[in-house]
Protein: Alcohol dehydrogenase catalytic domain-containing protein
Amino acid sequence: MSLTKSQVESIVRNTITEYVSETTVSGKMKAYVMNEERKMVIKEMPEPVPKADNMIVKINYASICGTDFRTFMKGNAKITPPRIMGHESAGVVIHVGAYAEGKGFKKGDRVTVAPAVGCGKCWSCQTGHTNMCDSLKTFGFQYEGAFAEKMEIPKHVIDMGNVIKIPDSVSDMSAALSEPAACAFNAQTYLNIQPDDYVVIYGSGYIGCIHAELARLAGASKIIMVEIAKPRIEIAKKMIPDIIVINPKEQDTVEEVKRITNGRGANVVITALSVPSAHTEAQIIAAKRGRISLFGGIAGDGKGYLDSNLIHYKELSIHGVHATTAGMMKEIIRYVEEGKLNLEKYVTDVYDLKDISEGFLAIRDRNAMKVLVHP
Structure:
């Protein structure tokens, strides 16, 4: 059974003092794991071991993201089992080694972690694009993840600046949702949205809605969302009342975009879903000199969906995007702190760790927008 936000927040407040006062961490803990048979199970795993150069965080919230959901449904060959999954998190520090103390952290700090960690040495890292690292390591993939009672933060993660303190005015729920929002922020750094722009977003999930919110903050003239699932349409319209919705099951997307934009087309198109045909249609509905973000990755080799002549003659700019950086997460948290973004409103359900499978089913069967896990 899911808990209400207030119930879970009460649990967190009542237990945080107990965990912060711990001086040792040992034994076993419950975690959601891809096991050796590549099955997703709740099982006991070793607790993180306190070291002089690491930190240990008691997880207050971990969020189920699109990648987690696809792994739940279809598996993921990129994960080497056994591995604790989950990479969107917020928690409280219960162990601080001397190295982390020297970096300004202390027991009791509320933190979130930028989960994609660069090596710090390659050209991408040296130029500030750590998400493009040649040897990228990610929580829930190469590092043990956040779907657990506790999570270790190794020295290298601290050294790379991927541990972010949560401001007092920002809730743990919002902090746990900052990483996917920062991925959308990363995509929009390429798009240069202007006040006169028409923006089309394919997909009305959490990412699609955050893209709409950021486009609105940038002053976009009209924001059009393309979505076939009526329950998601209703949720998106409730979250962002001024969006225009096109349902391809009932309308011709190309013709509707042409009509809404007075024949200009979309200055910006964002494919916030994993549907290959959207990549092709994005080029058709784009205005001349339009900018396209292929945000949602697609299965297979990804070939055969782009039209070189459309790109050439319309002078289209097409951008990819992968993950985000600690700096962009800090920007999103600042937006929350300043009241520009309300991430917590997107939380549909909160589940205990033992009921995490119900959270995945809520996404599959009830179009849940954002599901949090409270270990």
